[in-house]
Request: fold
Amino acid sequence: MAILVDFIWLVLTMMLKRETLSQRGFTLVETLIVLLIVGVLAVIAIPRITSSSDAAKRNVCESNIDLINSQIELYYANTGTWPKKLKDVTENLDYFPEGEPECPFGKKYNMDNDCRIITSNHKH
Reply:
């Protein structure tokens, strides 16, 4: 990567140091080299950006599941009964004053028979 940056710096320096008035524009070769370098950088950067985004979404989803499970336990501690439906907890402003947590992938959270949301049951 450092070699590529050095090469870009060298090409740009050479392009900017031309002093004759007859060579004001960039040549076709110089333009193609710059486009090639930008293309290579894009090929390297774009997959890393998208994989980071997916990892962040998975982390948010796991945090939401942990939060919902904690609020289900708090519901049990407050009422002495487990919620019959997930909506009993998620729509209650005492437990979620800012509204129901949403999965960043657009999936719905489902409570199992043990009144838990298990990560393995919530697939992306």
